């Protein structure tokens, strides 16, 4: 049975009702500032311990389908299933891009039905990895937010495919009449499912300090971020918490209708009322669950100069982009350690 994602920009249902009080997955967004350094998003990516398992999970639970690479003239080509791990590439250019010398790499591109950005899974092998299970309240945690048309059916499929529920009591939470739940995929990566007949998808990022977030996404990359008015607590059960506060900022990725939400948590308590201390999580790109934006950029050389001037941390070896016939690529990290790939296509 195909439990299809209803995709594109999750907020459209509740924009009027949640303007003054927001929950993760339900943020409103401001207009776009132009021109911006970023002009679009190719894929939202996270690394996986098992590409075959990951592909089967997202296909069977959410109806995602394989797509061809958007690079190298492959657009429109017939997509192929994941290569066997024994055929994973050992490419020095990828080593420099990702700072994973000696690794073997394979990946898979997927469409999210009705959504204007892709989902990509990356698998590294032959290199040391850390298993990290980020909680939503930990700075550096990220979450893929998806609309689904039948929540119970999607949750049944998710659990059968090796996922698990995070929300309190292991069941959906009703927010302003709309039901939602937070779960994990088999790698422990966080997902929010919102029951809606309309397509929708967004990306959530937990931050330590919104001021740092503004300096990176707004001042450097050209996002226009809508900051929250106050902290609130209406959706704590959604995150699996019994106490604490959160606030949500939001922005559109320039050149798109794709929404990013930025979460801040404080004074949080677990299901039994125990006090929890959030811990910053900083994935390396090879670690299962490592989140990655893949942004198309306007002027890579200028953006690299500005990034260096602002002391943005680089992942790519020598702070240099790799060169392909179809484009230039380089990895940095945002202030909370989320991996960000700048892509300048040719």
Present the secondary structure layout.
Elements: E1 5-6, E2 38-47, H1 51-62, E3 65-66, H2 92-98, E4 104-111, E5 118-125, E6 142-148, H3 151-160, E7 164-165, E8 173-175, E9 178-184, E10 190-195, E11 201-206, H4 210-220, E12 243-252, E13 259-269, E14 291-297, H5 300-309, E15 322-324, E16 327-333, E17 339-345
Parallel strand pairs: 2-5, 6-10, 11-13, 14-17
Antiparallel strand pairs: 1-6, 2-14, 3-4, 4-5, 6-11, 7-9, 8-9, 9-10, 12-13, 15-16, 16-17
Helix pairs in contact: 1-3
- How would you sum up the global shape? globular
Looking at the chains present, what oligomeric state does this protein adopt? single chain
Q: Give me the CATH superfamily.
A: 2,3-Dihydroxybiphenyl 1,2-Dioxygenase, domain 1
> Kindly state the mean pLDDT as a whole number?
88
Number of separate strands: 17
CATH topology (level 3) name = 2,3-Dihydroxybiphenyl 1,2-Dioxygenase, domain 1
CATH architecture: Roll
Element pattern in H and E: EEHEHEEEHEEEEEHEEEHEEE
Q: What count of domains describes the coordinates?
A: 1
Task: Give the structural class.
Answer: alpha+beta
- Uncertain ranges: 1-21
